[in-house]
Amino acid sequence: MEKTILVVDDDPDIVKLITKSLRLEQFEVIAAHSGPEALAVLKENPVDFIVLDIMMPQMDGLEVCRNIRTNYSIPILFLSARDRDIDKIIGLEIGADDYMTKPFSVQELTSRIKAHFRKFDRLYNEWKGLRQEVDPQKFPSASPLILNQKTFEAYLDQEKIELSTKEFQILSFLMHHPNNVLTREQIYENVWAGEYGEINTVTVHIKNIRKKLGSKYDFIKTIWGIGYKYTEG
Protein backbone atom coordinates (compact mmCIF):
# COMPACT_ATOMS: atom_id res chain seq x y z
CA MET A 1 0.00 0.00 0.00
CA GLU A 2 1.37 3.43 -0.93
CA LYS A 3 2.10 5.83 1.90
CA THR A 4 0.89 9.41 1.59
CA ILE A 5 3.20 12.27 2.61
CA LEU A 6 1.92 15.80 3.18
CA VAL A 7 4.62 18.38 2.37
CA VAL A 8 3.98 21.84 3.83
CA ASP A 9 6.25 24.76 2.89
CA ASP A 10 5.64 28.27 1.55
CA ASP A 11 8.65 27.94 -0.79
CA PRO A 12 7.35 26.33 -4.02
CA ASP A 13 10.87 25.28 -5.09
CA ILE A 14 11.40 23.30 -1.89
CA VAL A 15 7.98 21.68 -2.25
CA LYS A 16 8.79 20.65 -5.82
CA LEU A 17 12.20 19.25 -4.81
CA ILE A 18 10.80 17.17 -1.95
CA THR A 19 7.81 16.03 -3.99
CA LYS A 20 9.99 14.82 -6.86
CA SER A 21 12.31 12.91 -4.52
CA LEU A 22 9.48 11.22 -2.60
CA ARG A 23 7.58 10.24 -5.72
CA LEU A 24 10.72 8.56 -7.05
CA GLU A 25 10.51 6.39 -3.93
CA GLN A 26 6.88 5.50 -4.75
CA PHE A 27 5.31 7.74 -2.10
CA GLU A 28 2.07 9.57 -2.79
CA VAL A 29 2.61 13.29 -2.13
CA ILE A 30 0.15 16.07 -1.33
CA ALA A 31 1.53 19.61 -1.30
CA ALA A 32 0.36 22.54 0.81
CA HIS A 33 1.88 26.02 0.80
CA SER A 34 0.48 27.38 4.05
CA GLY A 35 -0.67 26.26 7.47
CA PRO A 36 -4.40 26.73 6.83
CA GLU A 37 -4.10 24.83 3.53
CA ALA A 38 -2.36 21.95 5.33
CA LEU A 39 -5.11 21.71 7.95
CA ALA A 40 -7.73 21.73 5.20
CA VAL A 41 -5.91 18.90 3.40
CA LEU A 42 -5.91 16.78 6.55
CA LYS A 43 -9.68 17.07 6.89
CA GLU A 44 -10.18 15.62 3.42
CA ASN A 45 -7.29 13.17 2.95
CA PRO A 46 -5.71 10.27 4.87
CA VAL A 47 -2.05 11.13 5.48
CA ASP A 48 0.71 8.87 6.84
CA PHE A 49 3.52 11.39 7.40
CA ILE A 50 3.95 15.19 7.40
CA VAL A 51 6.98 17.26 6.42
CA LEU A 52 6.31 20.67 7.93
CA ASP A 53 8.22 23.94 7.55
CA ILE A 54 8.36 26.12 10.67
CA MET A 55 8.96 29.58 9.19
CA MET A 56 5.76 30.30 7.29
CA PRO A 57 3.66 33.49 7.17
CA GLN A 58 0.06 33.64 8.38
CA MET A 59 0.40 30.47 10.52
CA ASP A 60 3.83 29.10 11.35
CA GLY A 61 4.68 25.41 11.61
CA LEU A 62 4.60 25.36 15.40
CA GLU A 63 0.99 26.54 15.43
CA VAL A 64 0.10 24.10 12.67
CA CYS A 65 1.63 21.28 14.70
CA ARG A 66 -0.36 22.26 17.80
CA ASN A 67 -3.55 22.18 15.73
CA ILE A 68 -2.68 18.80 14.22
CA ARG A 69 -1.90 17.25 17.60
CA THR A 70 -5.38 18.07 18.93
CA ASN A 71 -6.89 15.62 16.42
CA TYR A 72 -4.19 13.47 14.84
CA SER A 73 -1.18 11.36 15.83
CA ILE A 74 0.44 11.50 12.37
CA PRO A 75 4.27 11.60 12.51
CA ILE A 76 5.65 15.09 11.85
CA LEU A 77 9.14 16.07 10.70
CA PHE A 78 9.95 19.76 11.07
CA LEU A 79 12.04 21.73 8.60
CA SER A 80 13.58 24.93 9.91
CA ALA A 81 16.12 27.55 8.89
CA ARG A 82 17.01 27.87 12.59
CA ASP A 83 19.52 25.51 14.19
CA ARG A 84 19.21 26.33 17.89
CA ASP A 85 18.69 23.60 20.46
CA ILE A 86 15.79 25.53 22.01
CA ASP A 87 13.94 25.47 18.68
CA LYS A 88 14.35 21.71 18.44
CA ILE A 89 13.14 21.24 22.01
CA ILE A 90 10.07 23.43 21.44
CA GLY A 91 9.25 21.48 18.28
CA LEU A 92 9.54 18.15 20.07
CA GLU A 93 7.56 19.36 23.08
CA ILE A 94 4.56 20.32 20.98
CA GLY A 95 4.51 16.96 19.21
CA ALA A 96 7.10 16.72 16.43
CA ASP A 97 8.77 13.36 15.82
CA ASP A 98 11.86 14.58 14.00
CA TYR A 99 13.68 17.79 13.03
CA MET A 100 15.93 18.88 10.16
CA THR A 101 17.54 22.25 9.51
CA LYS A 102 17.78 24.08 6.20
CA PRO A 103 19.67 23.75 3.96
CA PHE A 104 19.06 20.01 4.06
CA SER A 105 19.84 16.96 1.99
CA VAL A 106 16.73 15.71 0.23
CA GLN A 107 18.31 12.25 0.18
CA GLU A 108 18.64 12.34 3.98
CA LEU A 109 15.06 13.55 4.32
CA THR A 110 13.84 10.66 2.18
CA SER A 111 15.98 8.22 4.16
CA ARG A 112 14.51 9.40 7.46
CA ILE A 113 10.96 8.99 6.20
CA LYS A 114 11.68 5.50 4.85
CA ALA A 115 13.39 4.57 8.14
CA HIS A 116 10.28 5.69 10.03
CA PHE A 117 8.02 3.38 8.03
CA ARG A 118 10.44 0.46 8.33
CA LYS A 119 10.56 0.94 12.08
CA PHE A 120 6.79 1.30 12.31
CA ASP A 121 6.25 -1.97 10.43
CA ARG A 122 8.86 -3.82 12.48
CA LEU A 123 7.47 -2.66 15.81
CA TYR A 124 3.93 -3.46 14.79
CA ASN A 125 4.91 -7.01 13.83
CA GLU A 126 6.85 -7.45 17.09
CA TRP A 127 4.03 -6.12 19.23
CA LYS A 128 1.51 -8.41 17.50
CA GLY A 129 3.54 -11.34 18.72
CA LEU A 130 4.03 -10.00 22.22
CA ARG A 131 0.42 -9.66 23.27
CA GLN A 132 -3.15 -10.20 22.14
CA GLU A 133 -4.68 -7.21 20.42
CA VAL A 134 -6.77 -5.07 22.72
CA ASP A 135 -10.28 -4.00 21.82
CA PRO A 136 -10.49 -0.51 23.36
CA GLN A 137 -14.29 -0.70 23.37
CA LYS A 138 -14.31 -3.71 25.71
CA PHE A 139 -11.42 -2.71 28.01
CA PRO A 140 -10.82 -6.21 29.41
CA SER A 141 -7.73 -5.09 31.31
CA ALA A 142 -7.86 -3.85 34.89
CA SER A 143 -5.33 -1.19 33.96
CA PRO A 144 -6.69 2.34 33.47
CA LEU A 145 -4.19 2.76 30.62
CA ILE A 146 -4.79 0.76 27.44
CA LEU A 147 -2.67 0.81 24.29
CA ASN A 148 -4.25 -0.58 21.14
CA GLN A 149 -1.24 -2.01 19.31
CA LYS A 150 -3.19 -2.42 16.08
CA THR A 151 -4.43 1.12 15.70
CA PHE A 152 -1.70 2.90 17.72
CA GLU A 153 -4.38 4.48 19.91
CA ALA A 154 -4.11 5.08 23.64
CA TYR A 155 -6.93 5.23 26.19
CA LEU A 156 -6.80 6.41 29.78
CA ASP A 157 -9.88 5.74 31.93
CA GLN A 158 -11.66 4.87 28.66
CA GLU A 159 -10.91 8.31 27.21
CA LYS A 160 -8.72 8.53 24.11
CA ILE A 161 -5.48 10.47 24.46
CA GLU A 162 -3.51 11.70 21.48
CA LEU A 163 0.09 10.47 21.39
CA SER A 164 2.63 11.03 18.65
CA THR A 165 4.11 7.91 17.09
CA LYS A 166 7.32 8.21 19.10
CA GLU A 167 5.39 8.82 22.33
CA PHE A 168 3.28 5.73 21.70
CA GLN A 169 6.38 3.64 20.96
CA ILE A 170 8.17 4.81 24.12
CA LEU A 171 5.15 4.18 26.33
CA SER A 172 4.59 0.76 24.79
CA PHE A 173 8.24 -0.18 25.32
CA LEU A 174 8.04 0.85 28.99
CA MET A 175 4.75 -1.00 29.50
CA HIS A 176 6.22 -4.19 28.06
CA HIS A 177 8.90 -4.05 30.78
CA PRO A 178 6.83 -3.19 33.91
CA ASN A 179 8.79 -2.41 37.08
CA ASN A 180 12.08 -2.67 35.17
CA VAL A 181 14.38 0.33 35.14
CA LEU A 182 15.24 1.25 31.54
CA THR A 183 18.03 3.67 30.69
CA ARG A 184 17.63 6.49 28.20
CA GLU A 185 20.08 4.60 25.99
CA GLN A 186 17.88 1.48 26.01
CA ILE A 187 14.77 3.50 25.16
CA TYR A 188 16.59 5.40 22.43
CA GLU A 189 18.06 2.26 20.86
CA ASN A 190 14.67 0.51 20.84
CA VAL A 191 12.56 3.39 19.53
CA TRP A 192 15.03 5.22 17.28
CA ALA A 193 17.06 2.20 16.11
CA GLY A 194 18.23 2.78 12.55
CA GLU A 195 16.87 6.34 12.52
CA TYR A 196 18.47 9.73 12.96
CA GLY A 197 17.96 11.50 16.26
CA GLU A 198 19.47 12.68 19.53
CA ILE A 199 19.32 10.83 22.83
CA ASN A 200 18.17 13.98 24.66
CA THR A 201 14.89 13.74 22.78
CA VAL A 202 14.00 10.77 25.00
CA THR A 203 13.73 13.14 27.99
CA VAL A 204 11.56 15.56 26.02
CA HIS A 205 9.20 12.80 24.87
CA ILE A 206 8.89 11.38 28.38
CA LYS A 207 7.94 14.86 29.59
CA ASN A 208 5.27 15.07 26.87
CA ILE A 209 3.87 11.64 27.74
CA ARG A 210 3.55 12.56 31.42
CA LYS A 211 1.78 15.80 30.54
CA LYS A 212 -0.74 13.96 28.36
CA LEU A 213 -1.37 11.27 30.97
CA GLY A 214 -2.07 13.95 33.58
CA SER A 215 -1.43 14.00 37.31
CA LYS A 216 -3.99 11.39 38.40
CA TYR A 217 -1.57 8.50 37.80
CA ASP A 218 2.18 8.27 38.18
CA PHE A 219 2.89 5.54 35.63
CA ILE A 220 6.41 6.64 34.67
CA LYS A 221 8.85 7.09 37.50
CA THR A 222 12.25 8.71 37.11
CA ILE A 223 15.10 6.74 38.62
CA TRP A 224 17.65 9.52 39.00
CA GLY A 225 20.97 8.87 37.33
CA ILE A 226 19.69 5.72 35.62
CA GLY A 227 16.49 6.11 33.62
CA TYR A 228 12.76 5.42 33.87
CA LYS A 229 10.42 2.73 35.16
CA TYR A 230 6.80 1.98 34.30
CA THR A 231 4.65 0.92 37.22
CA GLU A 232 0.98 0.90 38.19
CA GLY A 233 1.63 0.22 41.85
Mean pLDDT: 83
Regions with pLDDT < 50 over 5+ consecutive residues? Answer: 127-140
Largest sheet: 5 strands, parallel
**Would you count the extended β strands for me?**
11
Q: Which oligomeric form is depicted?
A: single chain
Strand order of the largest sheet: 2-1-3-4-5
Helix/strand structural class? alpha/beta
The span between the termini is 42 Å
- The radius of gyration computed from the alpha-carbon positions, rounded to a whole number of angstroms, is 18 Å
Assign an overall shape. Answer: globular
Total count of helical runs of at least 4 residues: 8
H/E element string? EHEHEHEHEHEEEHEHHEE
Provide a short characterization of the protein structure.
By secondary structure, this protein is α/β, with parallel strands linked by helices.
Describe this structure in words.
The protein has helices at 12-24, 35-44, 61-69, 85-93, 106-130, 165-175, 184-191, 200-213; strands spanning 4-8, 28-32, 49-53, 76-80, 98-101, 145-148, 153-156, 159-161, 181-183, 220-223, 227-230. The protein is α/β, with parallel strands linked by helices and 233 residues long. β3, α3 and β4 (76-80) form a beta-alpha-beta unit. The longest helix has 25 residues, at 106-130. The chain is globular.
Features:
about 230 residues, 5-stranded parallel sheet, 8 helices, alpha/beta, 3-stranded antiparallel sheet, 11 strands
